[in-house]
């Protein structure tokens, strides 16, 4: 029994084990959530910083560049009430590229009308200068 005591004492001096590193899904989902928050709070600078210059955003309205996406955030005649992201999954494509998919539910008011929209999203990320950035984002209406 005596040899166990020094090990316990040593473990208590070292402190708790460090938290595990975030998974790829966790890292990409954090950026995706920040993008939704920037949409909700109308922060175009987030998109200018986080989307790569040649990025594309694809929705039912068509394709938009990074600058068009950033400008759109301030022009949309809707107020975002809230959003949910669930069922996230990621796939590493290369060392410096990955895709994130998730199910979303967005609640917003547009021209006085309350709307709830459920979609599946896919976002392609590329790592540039050590940072994950968005290269492509697409939304597809979820089946009811």
Description:
Helices cover 31% and strands 49% of the residues. The longest helix is centred in the first third of the chain and has 17 residues, at 24-40. Helix 2 (24-40) runs antiparallel to helix 3 (44-50) and helix 3 (44-50) packs antiparallel against helix 4 (66-75). It has 4 helices and 6 strands; from the N terminus they run H-H-H-E-E-H-E-E-E-E. The protein has a 6-stranded mixed β-sheet with strand order 2-1-6-5-4-3. With 144 residues, the protein is α+β, with helices and mostly antiparallel strands.
DSSP, total strands: 6
Number of helical regions: 4
Structural class: alpha+beta
What's the SSE pattern? HHHEEHEEEE
Radius of gyration: 20 Å
Strand order of the largest sheet: 2-1-6-5-4-3
Task: List the keywords.
144 residues, alpha+beta, six-stranded mixed sheet, 49% strand
Give a brief outline of the structure.
The chain has about 140 residues and is α+β, with helices and mostly antiparallel strands. The chain is built from 4 helices and 6 strands.
Furnish the topology, listing elements before pairings.
Elements: H1 4-14, H2 24-40, H3 44-50, E1 51-59, E2 62-65, H4 66-75, E3 78-94, E4 97-110, E5 113-128, E6 131-141
Parallel strand pairs: 1-6
Antiparallel strand pairs: 1-2, 3-4, 4-5, 5-6
């Amino acid at each position: 029994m005596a040899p166990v005591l020094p090990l316990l004492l040593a473990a208590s001096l070292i402190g708790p084990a460090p938290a595990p590193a975030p998974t790829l899904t966790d890292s990409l989902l954090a950026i995706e959530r920040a993008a939704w928050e920037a949409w909700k709070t109308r922060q175009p600078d987030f998109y200018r910083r986080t989307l790569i210059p040649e990025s594309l955003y694809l929705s039912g309205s068509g394709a938009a560049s990074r600058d068009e996406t950033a400008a759109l955030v301030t022009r949309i005649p809707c107020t975002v009430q809230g959003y949910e992201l669930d069922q996230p999954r990621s796939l590493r494509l290369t060392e410096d590229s990955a895709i994130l998919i998730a199910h979303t539910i967005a609640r917003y008011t547009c021209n006085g009308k309350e709307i709830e929209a459920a979609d599946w999203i896919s976002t392609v990320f590329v790592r540039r200068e050590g940072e994950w950035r968005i290269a492509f984002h697409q939304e597809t209406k979820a089946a009811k």
